[in-house]
Design goal:
Elements lengths: L7 E4 L3 H12 L5 E3 L11 E4 L2 E4 L5 E2 L3 H6 L2 H4 L1 E3 L3 E6 L2 E6 L8 H6 L5 H16 L2 H4 L7 H8 L3 H16 L8 H13 L2 E4 L5 H8 L6 E2 L4 E5 L2 E4 L4 E3 L2 E4 L17 E11 L9 E4 L6 E6 H4 L6 E6 L7 H16 L3 E15 L19 E3 L9 H21 L4
Helix pairs in contact: 1-10, 1-13, 7-9
Bound molecules: flavin-adenine dinucleotide (FAD).
């Protein structure tokens, strides 16, 4: 059969599904992508309101991710870089802590910061040297423990863990216990020391939009929920059925393939709130952290520090669970900001509660091999949840599933 006559279906126009589609297209195959949403990107979404870029959750692209250069045109994304550090608000004081080897302006403020001891600061330096030399393969084959235990075993003081590592990594793992696997900690720490945390100038959704723009018009079908895939038959929620020679599922397969266990994944949730503020920002793209177990706020940043000509808007992330409704939560966040940082937030612009932000995974791998993505004779799996919750894993697993399909078509076997 002519390759172009093969029906290859991808379920999910998230970063993983789109990467699978691009990989297949580059190998000379035509694909059809179906997504339940009215937009591409899945969990990577931005709302563009007059003069404002509001991402659904504070989310950064670490430009050291190996998948970045493979799939993204970072010049075109015009990435805005965060400085390698943070402002820490603790006990009425503010500390500017960061990687002085990459940004000299952090040198004195970091040495003098009352966040951890000098030994702690030395340990941060020794850990970054160690992880720079540790390969990704070694990181993802190391024994797993919780991030908290890992940091304790490395010798960090309780104060350093509670005042810096907990707020900083809670904002990344979206959980405050640092129960996330030490493999993820080592991976993210390595990526932070080898590159920058960035956001495209048009917001985080510019990433999937750039991926989608590489596919032919008409190949992505939005507002189309797939209700099942059985063998070669795909059924949409509207009852339409069609034949698919090969199908890649770029989301939780248990919800779509009968006889698989239903989705039993637990998810980390997060809420992000955007407020008007008279504060003009920090004059640099830097993350603010509040080191106080009593407060709900985890981190914040000013959009005018990131995006050119942006209105004065503060983005605040809340990770801890709480019983508050939107109005009460906004009031509480405004109060905490004023009391803990002196920053005055005024009107609430937008609040997003993201219930399924990051999958809670027990054992992490870096990414799937092509053969591991095969579920049945003609169904293949992709998505970050198969490996680790990151854009890197989403892209690499999309690629792996696509390579598996190509291999199956061209040689009848997997790698
Ligand atoms: C708040 C937040 C912060 C994050 N922070 C970071 C960060 O800083 N750095 C980082 O690297 N990663 C971060 N992530 C994780 C990153 O966004 C994900 O790893 C990545 O987007 C996963 O992509 P995916 O394609 O695997 O899944 P998804 O984005 O979930 O895509 C799955 C797609 O499948 C579609 N779908 C599901 N079921 C069906 C169906 N039945 N029929 C049709 N379509 C269906 C969905 O609509 C969706 O579009 C964050 C995520 C969130 C939410």
């Amino acid at each position: 059969m002519d390759n172009n006559q093969l029906q290859i279906t991808i379920i999910g126009a998230g970063v993983s599904g789109l990467t699978a589609a691009i990989t297949l297209q580059n190998a000379g195959y035509k694909v059809s992508v179906y997504d339940a949403n009215s937009f591409v990107g899945g969990r990577v979404k931005s709302d563009l309101q007059t003069g404002m870029i509001l991402d659904h959750g504070f989310q950064v692209l670490l430009d050291a991710y190996p998948a970045v250069n493979e799939f993204l045109d970072i010049e075109a994304l015009k990435l805005r870089k965060f400085v390698p550090g943070s402002m820490i608000y603790m006990n009425g004081k503010t500390y500017r802590l960061g990687d002085a080897f990459r940004n000299r302006s952090f040198l004195w403020s970091t040495i003098m910061a009352g966040v951890g001891s000098l030994k702690d600061k030395w340990l941060v330096f020794s850990l970054s040297r160690k992880l720079k030399q540790k390969s990704l393969q070694d990181i993802f084959s190391s024994p797993e423990t919780s991030t908290k235990t890992y940091l304790e075993n490395y010798g960090f003081s309780t104060k350093m863990i509670s005042s810096f590592f907990t707020p900083f990594y809670a904002g990344i793992f979206l959980e405050t216990e640092l129960a996330t696997s030490s493999r993820m900690f080592e991976f993210v720490f390595k990526m932070f020391t080898e590159g920058n945390a960035t956001i495209p100038e048009a917001g985080i959704q510019a990433i999937p939009e750039q991926l989608a723009s590489k596919l032919p018009l008409g190949s992505i079908h939005l507002n189309q929920t797939v209700s099942s895939v059985i063998g070669n038959e795909v059924t949409l929620e509207n009852g339409e059925k069609f034949h698919s020679d090969y199908t890649i599922i770029g989301t939780i397969a248990g919800n779509i393939v009968p006889n698989l266990p239903k989705e039993d994944l637990l998810w980390h949730q997060v809420t992000v709130l955007y407020f008007e503020t008279d504060h003009t920002g920090f004059d640099e793209a830097i993350i603010g952290l509040i080191s106080n177990e009593e407060v709900l706020i985890n981190n914040f940043h000013f959009l005018q520090d990131i995006f050119d000509h942006h209105r004065n808007v503060i983005s605040v992330t809340v990770i801890k669970k709480h019983p508050l409704n939107d109005l009460k939560l906004a009031e509480r966040v405004i109060k905490e900001l004023r009391e803990e940082t002196g920053i005055v937030a005024t009107e609430l612009i937008q609040l997003y509660r993201i219930k399924k932000a990051l999958p809670q995974l027990n054992s992490l791998n870096y990414c799937m091999t092509a053969s591991e993505t095969q579920l049945t004779e003609n169904i293949f799996l992709a998505g970050d949840h198969l490996s680790n919750a990151s854009l890197n894993a989403a892209m690499l697993n999309g690629k792996a599933a696509a390579q598996a399909v190509v291999s199956k078509i061209e040689s009848g076997v997997l790698f």
